[in-house]
Amino acid sequence: LLMLSLVWGLQHAALSNPPVLGKQAPALAIQPYAQQFPVSVASEKGEPVVLNFWASWCGPCLDEETVLSQGMQDHPDVAFLGADNRDTSAAFSAFEEQHRHPYPAGPIVRGSYQSYGVAGLPVTFFIDSQGLVLASFVGPLSTTLLNHYLNLVNP
Fold first, then answer.
1. pLDDT, tens digit, for every residue of 106-129?
2. HEC string of 28-66?
3. Running DSSP on this structure, what letter comes out for residue 19?
4. Which residue in 39, 96, 113, 134 is a FRET match for 105, CA 20 to 30 A apart?
């Protein structure tokens, strides 16, 4: 029974944010650390996107950063973006100086975390190459979970 519950939970974790699932990804842009121009979710249209909401003060966010970084290396045909959420600019900069993201990550400069229904961190959205939100996951991702969701957006 425990194993059945776990399997069901993994398959249905994507249902944790029904307002955006199956719809076009809401407009959102971030200002990556040490870059001049913002990066938007829409600018990545044409390739799948992993959009991770995180913050410098979020312990589980730091824990999953290794998984996301490896996922980006293993899946060069998928765009990874990190949206720093409810953070100060000083805390964000200090975090990036110590734990530099290998993909664009920064504070939200257009759009909002609320448009995605984000209530807690970390939360990750999986967007297909047409800009449709196919899945979301609340909590830190493991390699197994990340690969499961990547198979949905990049079969």
1. 999 999 999 999 988 999 999 999
2. CEECCCCCCCCEECHHHCCCCEEEEEECCCCHHHHHHHH
3. T
4. 134
